Amino acid sequence: MTKEMSFVLNLKKGEQISFALVGSVCSARDFSDPYNEAERQVIYAIHEGTTSLMAAHRSLWNELWESDILMTKHNGRFGLHFSTFILLAGKEAD
Q: Do residues 34 and 28 lie in contact, with contact meaning Cβ atoms separated by under 8 Å?
């Protein structure tokens, strides 16, 4: 099931806004009720707020890179970082 939302916002010339879009994808592989879990995660994200979520996100990634495996060549390190990112991007938080 997809929930759709829309909004209309009238801005004056030069006026700026910012917004965040949050979503969640859960499957029956990991959750007995994936629809409700996805909804719960979105509600949690909205409750936490953009600033808090982004600060936690940056902190966790910085912690990951600080525990880096030392490599002698920059390209090797980039490859390792990219591979680590791909592996962890889909990993559920503990």
A: yes
How does DSSP classify residue 26? -
Whole-structure pTM value: 0.56
List for the chain the helix, strand, coil content (%; round to 5). 50, 0, 50
Helices (H), 15-73: 34-48, 50-66
CA angle 67, 76, 59 (to 5 degrees): 30
d(CA 90, CA 92): 6
Contact 24, 42 (CB under 8 A): yes
- Sign of the torsion formed by the C-alpha atoms of 67, 68, 69 and 72: negative
Q: What is the pLDDT of residues 8-58, one digit of tens each?
A: 889 999 999 888 888 899 999 999 999 999 999 999 999 999 999 999 989
